[in-house]
Design goal:
With 260 residues, this protein is of the alpha/beta class. It has a single domain (15-253), classed as NAD(P)-binding Rossmann-like Domain (Rossmann fold, 3-Layer(aba) Sandwich), CATH 3.40.50.720. Helix content is 44%, strand content 15%. It contains eight helices and seven strands, in the order E-H-E-H-E-H-E-H-E-H-H-E-H-H-E. It has a seven-stranded parallel β-sheet with strand order 3-2-1-4-5-6-7, sandwiched between helices. Helix 1 packs parallel to helix 2 (52-64). The longest helix is centred in the middle third of the chain and has 29 residues, at 116-144. The protein is globular. 46% of the residues are buried. The structure holds NADP nicotinamide-adenine-dinucleotide phosphate (NAP). NADP nicotinamide-adenine-dinucleotide phosphate is lined by residues 23-30, 47-51, 75-77, 102-105, 125, 152, 154-155, 197, 199-200, 202-205.
């Protein structure tokens, strides 16, 4: 395995018979998670919001590799759309084993200039979405007494982030939500964990440039940002039975850039 390159997709897991939903899987980390699940023989429902064409490309890549994938549009911050997403999943496959809460977005502004609307929007997209989707997933998982949930938080939610207090607050909420779900649903054979990426090279971080980028890189012992695959692999590991005793955990993926 060549760490940190796309060749790392040469390694797969055994997810035969499993059904997975990945939110925000049209691009970035979510797209790589969906691909890895699909190549590992899970049936994958790829959720997207604005980039349907890219979501279709992710599904096509999975099918080309012999897997099964479908695409569904839903704004996961809206209860009605989440209900439609789950109605579709129920109709498609009638069961669900894996949930990856990945959808997220930044709404950067320094705290005193954040309007009520922008605050609410940021909480809706980054935190309420995780609650809404997980609540529906738990209904399906509880009835089958099997479920594996991984949610994507952010280093911002652990150490704070200049100009991102709204995003940091929402992301911090995700790990508390997952830890609580781990307590409530562990007895029903449902595990819930959180991954906490540092800086990963996706559209979300494409605006990091110049001196600021260099100063951030200097704080990362590996002297580089992460690749989406390097988050996708730990997520998929947490879904496997090799991670059977990991529940309510938060896993940092940041090249050693966070010294707690
Ligand atoms: P990205 O490339 O910007 O992709 C974001 C994904 O979320 C897209 O697929 C987007 O769908 C989807 N999305 C956004 N709002 C949505 C909504 N309301 N409903 C459904 N889907 C929605 O971001 P990324 O870097 O891969 O980030 C993935 C996750 O990792 C996010 O939760 C992010 O906060 C977290 N994270 C990223 C980093 C990083 O450095 N990149 C670091 C820490 C945490 P469309 O494109 O279809 O609109």
């Amino acid at each position: 395995m060549t760490t940190g390159t796309r060749e790392s997709f040469g390694i797969t897991f055994d997810f035969q018979g499993r059904v997975a939903l990945v939110t925000g899987a049209s691009r970035g980390i979510g797209a790589r998670v969906a691909e890895l699940l699909g190549r590992s023989n899970a049936r994958v429902l790829i959720n997207y919001f604005e980039h349907g064409e890219q979501a279709e490309q992710v599904a096509a890549a999975i099918r080309q590799a012999g897997g099964e994938a479908r695409v569904f549009h839903a704004d996961v911050s809206e209860p009605v759309e989440v209900a439609a997403l789950f109605a579709h999943l129920q109709e498609l496959w009638g069961e669900m084993h894996f949930l990856v809460n990945n959808a997220g977005a930044r709404f950067d502004a320094i705290t005193h200039s954040i309007t009520d609307e922008k605050w609410e929007q940021c909480q809706r997209v980054n935190l309420r979405s995780v609650f809404l989707v997980t609540r529906e997933a738990l209904k399906m998982m509880t009835s089958s007494r099997f479920g594996r949930i991984v949610s994507v938080s952010s280093i911002a939610g652990t150490i704070g982030s200049f100009g991102q207090s709204n995003y940091a607050a929402a992301k911090a909420g995700i790990s508390a939500l997952m830890k609580s779900i781990a307590l409530e649903y562990g007895p029903k054979n449902i595990r819930a964990n959180t991954v906490i990426p540092g800086i990963i090279e996706t559209d979300m971080t494409a605006d990091m440039k110049g001196d600021f980028k260099e100063s951030v890189l200097a704080q990362i012992p590996l002297r580089r940002f992460g690749h989406p695959e390097e988050v996708a692999y730990p997520i998929c590991f947490l879904l496997t039975e090799a991670a059977s005793y990991i529940n309510g955990a938060t896993i940092h993926i940041n090249g050693g850039g966070l010294r707690l």
